[in-house]
Task: structure prediction
Amino acid sequence: MEGGEALVFTNLGCPACHRAKAALKQNGVVYREIDISEDAKAQEVVRDVTGRRSVPVIFINGKYIGGAEELEEAVTSRELVNIVEGQPAILPRMIRGLIANRTGTAPRTSPVHTEKTGVQTPDNRTTGHGEDKSVLEELAWRMVDRKEGLRRSGAFSGAEACAWLVKNCEDVHNQLDLAIRKGRELQGAHLLCHVTFSEPFSASAEEFFRLTTQDDEPAISRALNARRTWVKPTRAASKVIAELRKMVLALHVEAISADGRSVNYTALSTSNSFKKYVKAAEELQRVDLFSLNREEKMAFFINAYNTLVIHAMVESGPPKSVFKRMGFYKGMKYYIGGNDFSLDDIEHGVLRGNRAPPSSFIKNPVFGSTDPRRFHAIVPLEPRIHFALVCGAKSCPPIKMYTPENLDDGLQVATISFCEGEVKLNLERRTVTLSRIFDWYKDDFGETPKERLAFISTFLSKQKQNDLKELIQGGNFKISYSDYNWSLND
Result:
């Protein structure tokens, strides 16, 4: 089959979007992709027109198809052939207006890339050096090289640094003033700093400096983002995590299979994009968490959890057994705002309001009465967070970016999508089959089975709501739980 034109609204890093695009390509349907992940107005328009809260949203020859599952059904039933070969329809007026507003701008499908620098990082954004940044980084590494560098650890005087630059840096041309200028370029690029962050670089024998590339200091933590100490200026926590999340979503795009069903974590471990991400994640060490309000903190830690999962999968590989999974969630951590936060700490200590993990025999709070992290516990509990957290397993929700502005809508969409796919009703057998998440965390959703089902019903389609209501009112129904799919997206 050849021909036909499609319009696909997507989010960055969305596995279902990859599946849909692969199906369109395989069936010879040319498509235009519009990423609406950061365009709240576009999301509202698409939702108002189609009634759909999740992506992808697909139109073919002007006709609304639905999402990835509906497209796959159309392929299987041969209905796609009829749509492609049939008379084109006119796109809804609001969709046409949305496209018109995008005219002249290419749809964005990933964070900004350039030929030389790849995914933008805090380094490239803040320095103003652009293409020179990589040259300065190479120079900084030469300065700490054991063979040709300054041959000493820790701090060095401005005079020593200038002497080395005059001798070893070609574009200094043996001139002291050019050596000082080069030192200030390194300082401006946050590759060199004064030991007290108080003085500009100079040739003084009494002012001492160090290179931020030096890694001979003891690590402040064994966390994945703390192998080097962050000494550069630190931005607002929400800005830092938003940028890291974008970088991880771009990594996800880089390694996801064409059908959107698996991620090659091994391939990511050697990518330059991942190396840049690891460096950028160091900024989390010094962010201020106490300045965040409830919505900002919830969005921050959801993003931090989802980002850490991917980072940990790339670094250590997927855990293959129950005991290794337990160690994975307890052991994989980020150093954030002066404290270690493991995956378990983030989920149970922060997002679940300092509740004990379901697997714990002793139901004590995760953060004790003297633990400074207890101040970041979010109460009351928001149960929808369970459907926003990813774990790399195939039963987890697809990754998404959360902001304070889209938090409520994002959690709502994630919960609706999860419940529609994971809640199965059988009126004849009078059974309700739920995801194992509703068993493990049952107390988060209600005190009794009926309360939990009442919570779930608010996220189901009208038909499923009515069917579930009928089961509850009739009584004598059975709840069972589906096996959790722990196999990894690799």
Observations:
- The longest helix spans residues 294-316.
